[in-house]
Amino acid sequence: MWEVDCSQAPREKLREQGFWTCEGAVSEETASEVRQEILAAHAAGLLTQSGNVLAVRLHDGGRGGVTREKPNVFEADLVLAGAASCPKVLQQSPVLAALLAQEGMLRKTLNESWPWLVLDRLEQAKVQVNSGNGGAFPCHFDLPSAAAKGARRVLTALLYLNSDWREGDGGEVEILPFPFPDVPVAPCDRRLVLFSSCTTLHRVRPYTGACGRVCINLWFEGEVSVPFPAPLPPCERYDAQACKIVRILRQQPAELRAFCKVWYANTMAESLRDAFEPSEELDAALALHFEEMRAVESRIAPTTLEVLRECLPFKETPLVLRESETADLSGLFDGM
Ligand SMILES: O=C(O)CCC(=O)C(=O)O
Ligand SMILES: [Fe+2]
């Protein structure tokens, strides 16, 4: 059922920029049937409104969380911690159930293209319907929940099922692949988007289309000890000092995530306002975001930010050149 062709786009992009996209990941027929099944499950009330925990400063000065719903976004987890969940959705969705049952086929294809991922388990799978009217996701990483002890989640895969998506409908998943330029990816039918669960910041822009925006999210476990995206590819293409800073950040994913709060401070704030209704809790979350952003910023040497502001975002080198370049230099990745 999966028809992912990994030769469509340069493979090294996943390792270098932390994301990769391809078209036609399933047949038109499968896409249409699965979309209908997910919309039918939603119509039957089997999906629940999606929520996010907003980090806020509590009255006692501590850091706490309040859950806020994301208007117009509905979801159901079909696999949780590697086990089937929400059987009602699967019972009435035979094509979706078959597609999920064949996730091993997708994993095999991905492992053949990127052997260093060593994907060995589908940890979580979710279906989502965004009913429009501006439904959005704030900037986030797809870190496993704190409750999932020992989770080895490394890769996020998003499959879009929206044959009627049109330019202007919004709902693009915007990838923020520091230090590269932001990339809005339209949720086009049969498009598969892959990225690093723990280090690729992303959001969903407000969706205003007339038909539901449907997607399937898959989270895979794999080899957590291989830095992904890689500390950096051969560096002649980019400024050496900026490369060094990026390399250091990429070797410490928690620091990279903290750094993103500074680098993407305003985009993150805007994405929170896009995704949630105005409320005191949202204001508190925005206040904490900027407080934490300033705390991280105070730990960064001003010259570091100056260098990065001068050199970033790194420009993409034309793909033809990049492919032959990396073929020649592929040995440099060994043992990283
Ligand atoms: O709907 C999308 O395109 C992505 C959703 C997402 O980022 C998530 O569920 O974590
Ligand atoms: Fe996400």
TrEMBL record:
Ranges in coiled-coil conformation: none
Segments forming domain Fe2OG dioxygenase: 121-222
InterPro entries xrefs: HIF_prolyl_hydroxylases, Oxoglu/Fe-dep_dioxygenase_dom, Pro_4_hyd_alph, Pro_4_hyd_alph_FE2OG_OXY
GO biological process assignments: cellular response to hypoxia
UniProt keyword list: Dioxygenase, Iron, Metal-binding, Oxidoreductase, Vitamin C
MF annotations from Gene Ontology: ferrous iron binding; L-ascorbic acid binding; peptidyl-proline dioxygenase activity
Oxidoreductase among keywords: yes
Gene3D superfamilies: q2cbj1_9rhob like domain
Superkingdom to which the source organism belongs: Eukaryota
Keyword Glycosyltransferase found: no
SMART domains: P4Hc (SM00702)
CC cofactor: L-ascorbate
Name of the molecule in the record: Fe2OG dioxygenase domain-containing protein
